[in-house]
Structures are given as C-alpha cells and as structure tokens.
Amino acid sequence: MMIPKDKKKHMAVGFVISFAVTAVAVYLGGDPSSGLLAAAAAGAIKEVMDDNGPGQEDFMDFFATAAPGVIPPLVLPWAFSAMGWAARG
Fold first, then answer.
1. Is residue 41 included in any domain, yes or no?
2. pLDDT digit string (tens) for 57-81?
3. Which of 15, 40, 53, 85 could form a disulfide with 66 if both were Cys (CB 3.0 to 4.6 A apart)?
4. Would 69 be classed as within a structural domain?
5. What pTM was estimated for this model as a whole?
6. Beta-carbon neighbour count of residue 70 at 10 Å?
C-alpha cells in the first residue's frame, strides 16, 4: 500500500513538531505528552484553515499529522535519561 505524498508530508511535519516540543519539555522537566498535543493542534489548525480557505479539509490529513506525534513522547524521555541529560526543571 502506497502512502500518498501529501500524507507523508503531514506525517513528517507532525513528527518534527512533536520531536521539538517534546525535547524542550523533557529538557525543562515538563510533560512529554505536550509534543503529541502540539502535533494534534497543528493538524487541527491546518484542517480548520483548509475548511475556511481554498483548501479541502480531510480527517486523514489531521490523523497523518497527529499520529506520528506519539513517537517522541515515548522515546525522548528514555533517550535523555540514557544519555545522562538531567531535566533542568
């Protein structure tokens, strides 16, 4: 099954957003799940913009953006701990 190019872009953006937000949150001693929330929020905002603008909203675009946001909150706390990077918070 081929994943459409559009969905791959959504997945990449969702992962990058989640990775960045999770890394900062873990480093500062915050909640790692904030990365997932940020990816989901980005997907929701994009689909609302598509609904109100020239684009076409698509639930699967939202899902493709939010779903990869699960990975960094699961991996980064462990990775930071394994590398000996203590939270600053």
1. yes
2. 899 999 999 999 999 999 999 999 8
3. 40
4. yes
5. 0.90
6. 17
